[in-house]
Amino acid sequence: MPELTRLPSDCTADDIVEVNERDGGVIVEGWISAAVLERFNAEIEPWLAAHAGTNSGSAESDEFLGYRTRRLQGLSVKAPTFVEIMTDDRIVGFARSVMASISPTVILNNGEVIDIGPGETSQPWHRDNDAWIHASAPAPLMINTIAALVDITSEMGGTLVAPGSHRWDDPMRVPTDAETVACELPAGSTLFFRGDTLHAGGANTTTDRRRRALSTGICAGWLRPVENSYTNVPIAAAAKLPRRAQELLGYALYDASSIGGGYLGYHDMGDPMKLFSQEP
Ligand SMILES: O=C(O)CCC(=O)C(=O)O
């Protein structure tokens, strides 16, 4: 059975990048502190309790998301502690470094609580890059993290990862059991992986334990993200956030002139960030 390297909580973004280049994924122990975890879990609890079931509007999408899985987005509004988590130097540094050659800036792809309930089946193997099936680039289009919000075992649906699959030539190759790691993560520990690494949410074969995790994904600044942060985090709420959070949510002009590219996301032919510095 392969294993993923485990880095200590004081590791740097460079450490995360280095192991990812080799293995496609790495676990950072205790990335989220006990105090932050307690606060975040308390904030999401009422939203999870009020969850109305999986209903994206597409049966195919619902199947992928999981009928026994509760998901929450719009976390910067629902659970303000998320802002601290998504702006952490390690996740942003990892994302910037992995995508440096294809995008001068990065934005949030998704901030998603993924709470897998008993009886849920495993997801199909996938690469996050495949969300943009016709985009091809000499670097991953995004990075992702799965942070354990409770102690996670493989029976609860620990994320399945195929280490090294970011280097496989055959895009259709499916990992064997011997090539698969089921991530067992104590609460706070986090899987960091690249958008070209094969992975899947695991099956929850328990009868009474929910696998509660947080996925924070960051993509190239020129892509349309999976999560629509403009509708999930209205502009009045975004105005109160720190600058790095505003940039991650996409409220900044994308400027690729340094690499011969163009500008994306104008607001009234200017940088949307100016909205936040204007008097009401
Ligand atoms: O929940 C997980 O462990 C992985 C989820 C995932 O890959 C997805 O929903 O695309």
Characterise the protein shown here.
The chain is globular, with a radius of gyration of 18 Å. By secondary structure, the protein is of the alpha+beta class. The chain has helices spanning 13-23, 34-49, 59-65, 75-78, 81-86, 89-99, 229-232, 235-238, 243-248, and strands at residues 6-7, 25-28, 69-72, 106-116, 142-148, 160-161, 181-182, 190-194, 199-200, 211-220, 254-255, 263-264. The protein has 9 helices and 12 strands. It has a single domain (6-232), classed as q2cbj1_9rhob like domain (Jelly Rolls, Sandwich), CATH 2.60.120. The N and C termini lie far apart (59 Å). The protein is 25% helix and 19% strand. The structure holds 2-oxoglutaric acid.
pLDDT averaged residue by residue: 97
CATH superfamily: q2cbj1_9rhob like domain
- List low-confidence stretches: none
Bound molecules: 2-oxoglutaric acid
Instruction: Please tally the β strands and state the result.
Output: 12
Tell me the domain tally: 1
- At the first level of CATH, what is the class? Mainly Beta
- How much of the polypeptide forms β-strand, as a percent range? 15-25%
Q: Alpha-carbon distance between the termini?
A: 59 Å
Q: Strand order, biggest sheet?
A: 1-2-8-5-10-4-3
What name is given to the CATH topology? Jelly Rolls
Secondary-structure element pattern, one letter each:
EHEHHEHHHEEEEEEEHHHEE
Using the alpha-carbon principal axes, give the shape: globular
